[in-house]
Amino acid sequence: MTRPALVVLAALVGSCVVAGFVRAADAVKLRAEAPIYSDSKGAKLNTPEAVAFGGGTRLVVGDAGNGRLVAYEIAGDRVNPVGEMTIAELPYPIRIEVTSKGDLLVLGGKSRRIGRVSAAGQFTGFLSVDVSGSFVPRSIELDRSDRLHILDVGGGRILVLDATGKVVRSAPLPLVQPSFFSDLAVDGRGNVYLLDSVGRQVWVLAADATDAVRFGAALGADLDFATSLTVDDAGRLFLADQNGGGVVVLGQDGTFRGRQGTSGFREGMLRAPTDIVSDGGSRLFVADRGNNRVQRYAVLD
Predict the structure, then answer these.
(1) What does residue 171 show for φ and ψ, rounded to 5 degrees?
(2) CA–CA distance, 32 with 269 (Å, rounded to integer)
(3) CA 241 to centroid of chain Cα atoms
(4) Of 4, 23, 92, 143, which is the most exposed, with the fewest CB atoms less than 10 Å away?
């Protein structure tokens, strides 16, 4: 059976386990859970671009179409909306990170500046990054020590800032063509994973390395155009395929562990997903931009 035929079959079946093209014998599967559609007042999400998880129970959504941030608390299987923040200086949030103190770092999609927002929702200024040359942040990620990792596509580098905002590390992006590096993720050991959307390849910059190397094989057969990735506490990577409407799973060593999901409107399906985040273990949250929602998945070991 051809891959297009499998897509049609998956859409018709509508199984509780997200349908997909799982080749690996030890495939990691995802079970779709009820999506998130609205805020605490019942107002609908509009073009959500970013999702962030922090503090063990806090989920923050960059509701870009409405120009705001929406906060939720996770309690078991329940997701409770708790507040909304409209920051005039950050009208189109595309990436969000939550610090250990509950403050937010927000990347604006129009200004390409990183803003600071207090846990109470107050804008406290833009982050000043002291680097030479062009600086155009595409994505951001905090590690467990609140060090900020920045994917700087303008300068062709990965920057690491300490909690005071000082640059403590700089490493070049891989010089491969064609390529388009769109996201990064950091695991508990300090390894940085880079997503090349055009090359359909993940790279890894080890904590003690100066250059990134390829992580696993190229994923040309399993990705269309992925733009976001996240890593869980077990070291597994999850890639959100924006154009293909699915999630690809890689093991700790970069081995393919399955592709799951089909593009569509039904719950469990994705349409132009733009960001993905893990709670560390059992759940994933995906900014499902084309469906104006955040899709939730349980990770089945």
Answers:
(1) -140, 145
(2) 8
(3) 11
(4) 4
Each domain of the chain, given as residue ranges in start order, spans 1-36+174-301
What three-state secondary structure class fits 108? strand
Question: Which ranges in the chain belong to alpha helices (H)?
Answer: 3-13
Per-residue pLDDT of the chain (301 residues; tens, 9 = 90+): 444 443 333 333 333 344 444 455 678 999 999 999 999 999 999 999 999 999 889 999 999 999 999 999 999 889 999 999 999 999 999 999 999 999 999 999 999 999 999 999 999 999 999 999 999 999 999 999 999 999 999 999 999 999 899 999 999 999 999 999 999 999 999 999 999 999 999 999 999 999 999 999 999 999 999 999 999 999 999 999 999 999 999 999 999 999 987 889 999 999 999 999 999 889 999 999 999 999 999 999 7
What is residue 232's DSSP assignment?
A: -
Count of all residues that appear for the chain in the document: 301
CATH entry 2.120.10.30 includes domain 1-36+174-301:
yes
Cis preceding-peptide flag for 178 (omega within 30 of 0): yes
